[in-house]
Amino acid sequence: MLRDENVCSQSFMVKFEQLKKKFDEKAEVHLDSEYHQQLKVYIERLYQQTCSVDLFCDKSFNDIREAEMSNLNRLQKLKNATSYKKDKHKSKRQNEDWG
Questions:
Q1: Which band of pLDDT confidence, cut at 50, 70 and 90, is reported for residue 32?
Q2: With a threshold of 0.70, does the pTM exceed it?
Q3: Cβ 20 vs Cβ 86: under 8 Å
């Protein structure tokens, strides 16, 4: 939604509130990974910054677009770094028998 220039602040708020509502309905599972913790913090912060503000308008939405896309990229890198480490260690275990 942040990348699509045709999305306005009102449609973003409606969709994000629906997603947040579904997120909150799920039973909370505590995960120790940094990625999951940062993702939860990101969702809560973005919700407070957008949907909880009475005067959230298109100008405000356009002002935060680039910064939020950058934050999402950081989260994606964190997620990929975690899975990369797992794949890296898997290949080491496979080669142990060849010794």
A1: confident
A2: yes
A3: no
